[in-house]
Each structure stands twice: as C-alpha cells, then as structure tokens.
Amino acid sequence: MTDSASLGQAISHAITSGGSVHDTESAPNIFAVPRDGELTQIAPGIFWGRLPLHYAPHHVNIYVLDDGDAWLVVDTGVDSTASRESWLSLISGPLASKPITRILVTHWHNDHLGMAGWLARRTGATLLISDEEHQRGASQADQPRQARDARERSYLLAHGAALPVLDRWLAEGFQNMSLISPLPETYIPIGPRDPVKVGKRTFQILPLSGHSPLASGLHCSEDHIFICGDQLSDRLVPPVAVMSDQPDANPYAGFIASMNLIRRSIPEDTLILPGHEEPFRGVAAALARQATKHTEVCNRLLKAAHEPQSAGELVPQLSRSDPGSTWFGFVVSRVVAYAHLLLAWGHLSRVVTDGRIYFTTTLTEEIEISRFLPTTETETTP
Q1: What is the per-residue burial (b if ≥16 Cβ within 10 Å, else e) of 221-243?
Q2: Domains of the chain by range and CATH?
Q3: pLDDT tens-digit readout, 349-368
Q4: Which residues contact 90 (CB under 8 A, 6 or more apart)?
Q5: 23 CB-near residues (< 8 Å, 6+ apart)
Q6: pLDDT category, 377, cuts 50, 70, 90?
Q7: Pair 334, 322: CB distance under 8 Å
Q8: Counting beta carbons within 10 angstroms of the beta carbon of residue 317, is it exposed (0 to 12), middle (13 to 18) or buried (19 or more)?
Q9: 240 by DSSP, 3-state: which?
Q10: Mean pLDDT across the stretch 98-107?
Q11: Would you give the DSSP letter of residue 1?
Q12: Phi and psi of 265, rounded to 5°?
C-alpha cells in the first residue's frame, strides 16, 4: 500500500475495543480495518471508522477528529437501520467520553450525507458542508419520488435505456440515492481554502468537483494529512456521471481540474484518508491510475462509436460485467459524462433522432493520458 518504513515513522497504530483505544506497537505499519462500532487510530487525534452499505463496496469510511473537549465527525454513512445501530454503538462506546459538536460532510452522496441530519438531531451537532453539496443533497432528499422517477425515466430513455432494466433501476437502485435523512434547518457553509480548526490542527478546504458539484477535501499541510472523500483512492477509480437533473453538464471538466489541483497541492508523502478502501500514501500513483483508466475508457468509446450509438448501447465499453438494477442508470450516466467530455474535445458529435440521443466519432485520434494529467504547468481542460 505504501512505503512501510515511512508509514511506521509517521503514524502510530491503534485499535478500539470495548470503548477504549489501545496503541498497537507490534504492527506499526498496518492499519487494522475497524469493525462495526469500533475505531482505528491512524494518527494522533484522528480515528477511522466504517459503516455498512447494502450495496457495493459494502462500506463507507468515516473519520473522527479529536477537537479537545469534543469530537468532529467527517461523513456519516447512508440513512439506514444498520447505520443508526453503528452510530449508537460508537456514541455509547469509543465516543462516549465527550460530545460530537460538529459534523463535516465532504459531499452530498447518500453514503456520506445520509445520516448527517439524524446524527445532528441526536447530538445537537452543527453541520458543515459546501453550499453546492447541501443544495444537491436537499434536492435529492426532498423532491417527491414520483417527480424524481419521471425525470430519471425520461433522461435514461433518451439515452437508449431498455425498458425492462430501466424499470428495475427505478424500483431498486435509483432509490438508494435518496437515502438521506432530513437535513438540519441550519448549517455552516464551507468554501475553498476556508480554515477548519480541529484541536491543535488546522485543515484547509480543498475544493474538489466532478464526482460531485463541490466536495470539500481537508488538508492539514503541517501533519501531511488529506481527507479526500471519494476524489482519490488507492484502488478504486471515482465515478463521474451526468445526472438527470443536470443533463447537459460536463462534470469531467471540473474533475480534471481537481485532479491537477490535488497534484499541485498535496505532497507525495501525505497520508490520504479516502471515503472507501484503506488509508494510503502515494498521490502520484493514485492520480496516474485514474488518468490511465479514464484514457482507456475514452478510447474504447471512440472505437465503438464509429457508427452512431446511444449511451445505453455503449455501456459494455464502460462496464464489462452486467451492472444490474443496482447500478444500471448510474453506469449509463457515466457513459454520458465521458461522451460530453469527448464532445467538448471535438472527438464526438451528437445527433438526436426521434427523441433519442446518439453519439458518433468525428475525430479518431486516440486520447492520451496528458489530457487528464498534463506534463506541463499549462492545464489542459475542456
């Protein structure tokens, strides 16, 4: 995962059991994956927890930061009975010594924002989130299901979704996105470069877009720690999608800019705390993995679209396995995001026939990794 020697020098390892934290010097280079209701200490005053998800990847990370006489929580899990039970175990166990007074949510997706309202009402904590993410989350949580489903159905039909799988998506997978408990009536908006003081540390907000409208990364430059939400991972490649409420968006423009902001802002030896998977070091390798994946998908789409293709028809170029009802609509929306990027770059054109949208290749030159991670200081973004 990382250089074990530097990792061992930089942080101490501990696990939580029975409501107390125990340093574990015998294995300083390995983070114990926290079990339900427990926490793993990954740096002084910073603890890692996991909450269950009923869909892949089956867990989401939360982070608990020691704020002196209180706790600050980063991200909250999906609104579900299982998440509530996990939070109750944490509150009565390892967090029982002092209150949770602030909840910082990196972005609006249900597995991060979902329990924020419930947790704020239970603890009296204040919610911190960017205006853009709060607006998107509130819209998803508050809009009546009938209106949401109608908009999604029209959007996916226009992009070539087949009716049987579309109906299953609307009945099952699409409903996961609205698993967000009612949000607090008030919140504190956080924006780019805002300082967030937690105990003796100060984190700067790094604005990250593409995966969501304007996510908040937390960077402590002094201690070389970066809490990044879903923007960066040691193994996963963050998905980027055009959602049905913004059907003409080009989210990859922001995502590419954010990749390069991370490259400029986060030193290579920084400890990365992601929204899923395990903490890691190695920003350059993670960004290169993302760029490689996106480049490969773009070139597959260009080859497949030598004749007009709908996003629904192009799904196999993105997902080699059947996405099933849990992910179908989201995968189509990801194809649309790639297509809009390639439209902006002049490699694709779009035609509309009988209300259905098709994409076709107009420039066959292959995309290079440098379109995502430029080799010069001049940013190459749409």
Answers
A1: eebbbbbbbbbbbbebebbbbbb
A2: 4-282 (3.60.15.10)
A3: 999 999 999 999 999 999 99
A4: 37, 39, 49, 64
A5: 12, 13, 14, 41
A6: low
A7: no
A8: buried
A9: coil
A10: 98
A11: -
A12: -100, -25
Q: What is the mean pLDDT of residues 111-119?
A: 98
pLDDT in tens, 177-201: 889 999 999 999 999 989 999 999 9
**E-only strand ranges, the chain:** 14-17, 20-23, 40-43, 46-52, 59-66, 71-74, 100-104, 126-129, 188-189, 195-198, 201-208, 215-220, 225-229, 271-274, 348-353, 356-361
Amino acid at site 33: V
Tell me the CA end-to-end span of the chain in Å, nearest whole number. 33
Give me the pLDDT at residue 28, please: 38
List pLDDT tens digits, range 141-172.
Answer: 888 999 999 999 999 999 999 888 999 999 98
Backbone φ, ψ for residue 206 (5° rounding): -100, 120
How far CA 261 is from CA of 255, 256, 266, in Å, comes to: 10, 9, 8
Across-strand partners of 14? 23, 41
Distance between CA 90 and CA 65 in Å, rounded? Answer: 13
Residue type, position 376, single letter: T
Q: Helices 163-171 and 324-344, interaxial angle, to 10°?
A: 110
Pairing between strand 188-189 and 195-198?
unpaired
Q: What is the pTM of this model?
A: 0.89
